[in-house]
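G.,

No rush on this.
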Amino acid sequence: MLAARNGSDALLNIAKTEKDPELRLQALRHLSVEKAGASPEALVDLYGVSDAAGKKEIINGFASRNDAKDLVTIARKES
């Protein structure tokens, strides 16, 4: 579990700070589809600072998790 947490922390850092947009998207993709990935709260926070492609990855991740609550949360941020 600790290794998974450290991996998630590293991916969160990449998603927040990486200059290469493709690497950022890959990090978001992994974080958003893995149940053991980033917490939903962290993804909602990342959604607020992501570009359109990053937002799409986060939305797709929540949809694949059947996470309606957090989909509604980010939808409210858009209005």
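When you get to it, here's the other one too:
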Amino acid sequence: MPLIKRHIAKSITYRLIGTATTIILTLLAGLPLKWAGMVGAAELILKPIIYFLHERFWYKWIKYGLKNSYEKNKTTNRR
């Protein structure tokens, strides 16, 4: 079973790769390094927040792909 430390390390490296990609694309779009850094910093802060809110929204409001407890109990009681 993977250790929590591994998951944390993967999460950090994934965010760093994503932010570096954003900075590079911003530079390729012609913005100066200062602006590219500011865009990268904003992205580094905002994307985890947006992801968290997205997860909470799905958890609370979207039931797609989940079986309700009635269906689970019904199939469990048949055995």
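The CA atoms of residues 15 and 47 lie 9 Å apart. The longest helix spans residues 33-61.

Enjoy the weekend,
O.
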